[in-house]
Amino acid sequence: MRQRILGSVITAALLTTSAYADDTLMQRFEKMEKEMAALKAELNALKADNSRLSTQLSTPAATASKTEVASAGKVNETLEEMQDQIDDLNKKTNGNNLKFGVDFRTSLDNIHYKMADGSKQKNDALFSNRLWLNMSYAATKELSFVGQLAYNKIFGERSMTSTANTGFEGFDWVSNESAYNDELRVRSAYFFYNDDEFFGTDIPWTISIGRRPSTEGHLVNFRDDVESSSPLAHTVNVEFDGASAKFGTEELIGLDGSYFKLCAGRGMSNAEPRFSAAPYSGQDAQTTNVDMVGIIVVPYDDKQYSTGLQYTYANNLID
């Protein structure tokens, strides 16, 4: 019914840590790890010497000289100093698991519409800002947390907002994808667990639960030059609250990069407001739950060529 000619000039101000900075940080960590390994090796050697001297001193038949007694005391002092150094290194390395990154973009869009009745609508210069504040935390080697705060807003005060579509424009599924207002919202916040074996089998797997954006999927991701999410964007391109599990089958079937992924989420909850006769119940709510499940199967992916299929099912979708 309408055609949209969109010319977008994007000025990207990427404040994420550069690759050089990442390399420097990794080098520092590697250096610290080597220092800790060397200190631990020296500590073990000193402990062995200390144990030998202690045995000699505690043996009745031993005739320890003053030199040996002094040596044992010096070893104990050195052990304490080295233990303090190891404690300091542990504090420095363990305290650097929280990382932040920023993706900030200012864009200028030239928009023209040709309506069904032949009339035209346009906006020659639509300016907007988009901010993504990325954060990640590694609690352990297997368990990590990933979050993202998003901000997407048109310059200045917005006028002529359609009352008929306002509710959908700020809708939870697309609130961070629409240039809406100056509120800072949580785009993603989820826990992520990964392991190299699934119940003893050689199947790497992951599971995550929380708020995950299934936006900027395959093909659409080229538009904004970002890494794609799992879904095919022409079928699923929304943010959702739910869970997903991914299982690698490369070793099982012998095809590069093969995997399958299970997803489930809730797009709307049948729940009354907090300050009502029955808070959070669905007794008198006017809406029903909107749930979705899906499976993604990728038989082959060598990073140059990829094949995949996707099936999704949702109930009670909004008309």
TrEMBL record:
Residues 1-21 form the signal peptide. It holds the Pfam family DUF3373. Keywords: Coiled coil, Signal. The keyword Coiled coil applies. This is DUF3373 domain-containing protein. Residues 22-99 form a coiled coil. InterPro entries: DUF3373.
